[in-house]
Structures are given as structure tokens and as C-alpha cells.
Specification:
By secondary structure, the protein is an alpha+beta fold. It folds into two domains: about 120 residues, Phosphorylase Kinase, domain 1; about 240 residues, Alpha-Beta Complex (Aminoglycoside 3'-phosphotransferase, Chain: A, domain 2). The protein is built from 13 helices and twelve strands. The strands form four sheets. It has a six-stranded antiparallel sheet with strand order 1-2-3-4-6-5. A two-stranded antiparallel sheet has the order 7-10. The longest helix is centred in the last third of the chain and has 23 residues. About 40% of the residues are buried. InterPro entries: ACAD10-like, ACAD10_11_N, Aminoglycoside_PTrfase, Kinase-like_dom_sf. This is Kinase-like domain-containing protein. It comes from Catenaria anguillulae PL171.
């Protein structure tokens, strides 16, 4: 990863000052949970110019797929991502094979910046589970869309670079990238709505030790009815699934995206779902300051950030599509989706499966996210058909 927040950027030189997501810790070979020597042999056989000795560290922040920082005898840096050990809850979860597939396909096209992938190993006898190895991209990752690290006069350029990069991603020739069958080509939002409602209804029934249930999502029935009545026409492009600043690597000194990270949720889907994910902060109030959503509603101009309308217009221009007249469905849906995700965090806390401070903060976003989705719909005209 890079120097700022996700594992394709590298750890900072001084771990004491490593940005969020960049810190690593040393790992004793006997604590790796796999045969170190088998890994070295595999790298010799599959990674060009690899040479021992190999140094291996683990990224400090928990990743759904364990992620390691590798340095070989030439001081060449790599990132290894593997499936977790043990039984998986879902056969489609932690699909490092899909991550490799999309990175390889996009890298072949050369249209969007992604880390180069070197090898995919599906032989579990090597290190216990499938894994892949990619290059380490040196750069900057910004945890907050408010970009406090950047002077206000320069922030617009970073936002514009991120939006133009997203438009290029959505313009990828799926056949050239060999990704035409990477996911279903239609019914994206219908499937999402059905799945998320089913998950949310199950999570609502979870009870804590005192018998208190997580509870039904605020406005659940209204949201369901409005989404069903306002489904947009199908579009199918490659989508990232979690496009936001802390999944982007910027050039060390310029407002230029040089890498896109964390492709676990990528698929074929509606391109405006990615744009909505990226623009969540424009709909969130300023008092919302959780690491996942930093609200800048009404503050964009003061922060030197493009307004919501400017972002939509820039994306449309860069993507070569008509001006986006209404964005209500996409914006409301992404907050509905995030409400389901944070409801899940709350459910795991009620079961005693998520006790960290971060999890506690995330769980408190459940109701606010559902309420923001409802607010967007009301401001769009309530039950009336949205112009999509």
C-alpha cells in the first residue's frame, strides 16, 4: 500500500509516528501460524528478482484479510494478503482470489493506478490459506475527507484528482481487463436491497445480556418502499465498493492518485454507488466525526473542498455522462447500507463479540445513518418518484 493508512502503502520509518493503518509490528517466525521457509521458497519461484533474506512484519490494525509487510534482501518492499486461518463464515468472504483478479485485470489495462500484483497462490499447503503478493506503493493516505493535513487552498485539487480517478475506473473496458464476468451485469440495487433488508431484520432481533434487542432500523419500511419505487436503470461497470480517501494512495508531494487499495468489495455494479460512497461526508453533519464518516455538510466551501454539486458535475464531465440531475437514491441508499453495517457492529457488541472502542463508536452510527437516509428522501420529495 503506502505511507498513510492501508496495507499497500508501507509503514512509516518511525513507528511511533506512523499514520493510522500504517504501523507494523515485528512477528516472530514461530508465531506466524505458517511455515516461513515455504513462503520464502514460493517467493523465489514466483516473484521476479526476489532474494533472501526476507523480513516480515504485520500491519498493526486488524484487517479482515491478514496483511503483512515484506522486505527482501535488496530492500524491495512487498505486501502479502492472505485469507484468515480456520473455518470461514461464508465461502465468498475474504476472497483474496477476487482481489488478485481485479488488481491484475486493472493493472493490465493501465487505466487506473493499482499496485502491481506478483503472484497468487491457491495452494494452502504453502502458508495454510490462499494468498497473493503485490508491490508496496510509497505515498500518502489521508484518513479524513476534510484533509486537515493539506492547506485549504490545495484541497480542491486532491478532491478533483480522486473524482477523476473514479471516473477512469468506471470507464474501464471490462473485456480488455478480462472482468466482464466479475459479477452480475444487472439487478445490482435490487439484490443489494433484498440482502441488506434480510441482514438488518436478523440483526434487529439480537439481544444483549439483559434481553434488550438491537432494534429495527428507524424508518425501515419507508426506506424499503421508497427504494423499491425509485430503482434506477441498470448500469454495470467495475465498482470498487468502498471508494473513499483512506483507500487512496496519493503521490508523496502532488495531488495525484497513484494507487487504489482494498478491493474486497469490488464487483460489477452501478457506478454512482461508488460516487455516493465517496460523497457521504457532504451529507453528514459536522458533528459526525467518526473515522468512517467525517461530516462536512455546509462546510465544503470553508474547507476549500468542492461542493456537492461541483463534485457531481466534475464526475459527470470526467465520466462522459449527462449531468446528474438527481442523486437522492444513491445518497440515501449508501447511508441505508452503512446503517445496516453499523447495526451489525451493534449486534456483535450485544453478543459480546466486538468490545473495542472503535466498535462502540461505529455502533452509535446505526440510528444516525438511517435518519440521514430518511432525511435525504424527505428532502427529495418524500414518497414522490425521484428523477433518476
Amino acid at each position: 500500500m503506502t505511507s498513510s493508512t492501508s496495507p499497500s502503502a508501507a509503514p512509516a520509518a518511525s513507528k511511533a509516528h506512523a499514520p493510522r493503518g500504517q504501523a507494523t509490528h515485528s512477528v516472530d517466525k514461530k508465531d506466524l501460524g505458517f511455515d516461513f521457509n515455504k513462503l520464502v521458497l514460493h517467493l523465489y519461484e514466483t516473484v521476479p528478482q526476489f532474494i533472501a533474506p526476507l523480513r516480515i512484519e504485520k500491519f498493526a490494525l486488524g484487517q479482515s484479510n491478514p496483511t503483512y509487510f515484506l522486505v527482501d534482501g535488496r530492500e524491495q518492499k512487498y505486501v502479502l494478503r492472505k485469507k484468515p486461518a480456520g473455518a470461514l463464515l461464508s465461502p465468498t468472504a475474504h476472497a483474496v482470489e477476487r482481489e488478485y483478479q481485479v488488481l491484475h485485470g486493472l493493472g493490465t489495462c493501465g487505466q487506473v493506478p493499482v499496485p502491481r500484483v506478483y503472484t497468487l497462490c491457491t495452494d494452502s499447503s504453502v502458508i495454510g490459506t490462499p494468498f497473493y503478493v503485490m508491490e508496496f506503493v510509497k505515498g500518502r493516505i489521508f484518513p479524513s475527507p476534510a484533509l486537515p493535513e493539506i492547506p485549504s487552498k490545495d484541497r480542491r485539487a486532491y478532491w478533483e484528482a480522486a473524482i477523476r480517478t473514479l471516473a477512469r475506473l468506471h470507464s474501464t473496458d471490462l473485456h480488455k481487463a478480462q472482468l466482464a464476468s466479475y459479477g452480475p451485469s444487472s439487478g445490482f440495487y435490487q439484490r443489494q436491497l433484498k440482502t441488506l433488508l434480510k441482514v438488518s431484520d436478523a440483526q434487529a432481533q439480537v439481544k444483549d445480556a439483559k434481553g434488550k434487542p438491537v432494534g429495527v432500523m428507524p424508518g425501515r419500511d419507508m426506506l424499503k418502499q421508497w427504494f423499491e419505487a425509485n430503482m434506477p436503470k441498470d448500469e454495470a461497470t467495475i465498482i470498487h465498493g468502498d471508494y473513499k480517501f483512506d483507500n487512496l494512495i496519493f503521490h508523496p508531494t502532488r495531488p495525484e492518485v497513484i494507487g487504489i487499495l482494498d478491493w474486497e468489495l469490488s464487483t460489477l455494479g452501478h457506478p454512482l454507488s461508488d460516487l455516493a460512497n465517496f460523497l457521504m461526508s457532504h451529507y453528514a453533519p459536522s458533528q459526525m466525526t467518526h473515522s468512517s464518516i467525517v461530516g462536512i455538510q455546509g462546510r465544503a466551501a470553508d474547507l476549500g473542498i468542492p461542493t456537492l454539486t461541483e463534485c457531481l458535475d466534475l464526475y459527470a464531465q470526467a465520466a462522459g455522462r449527462p449531468r446528474i440531475a438527481a442523486f437522492d437514491f444513491y445518497a440515501a441508499f449508501v447511508f441505508f447500507k452503512f446503517a445496516v453495517i453499523t447495526q451489525g457492529v451493534k449486534a456483535r457488541m450485544y453478543r459480546g463479540q466486538a468490545s473495542s472502542r472503535e466498535a462502540g463508536e461505529a455502533s452509535r452510527l446505526f440510528e444516525p445513518c438511517a435518519e440521514i437516509a430518511g432525511r435525504i428522501i424527505r428532502e427529495a420529495g418524500g414518497k414522490g418518484k425521484s428523477k433518476l
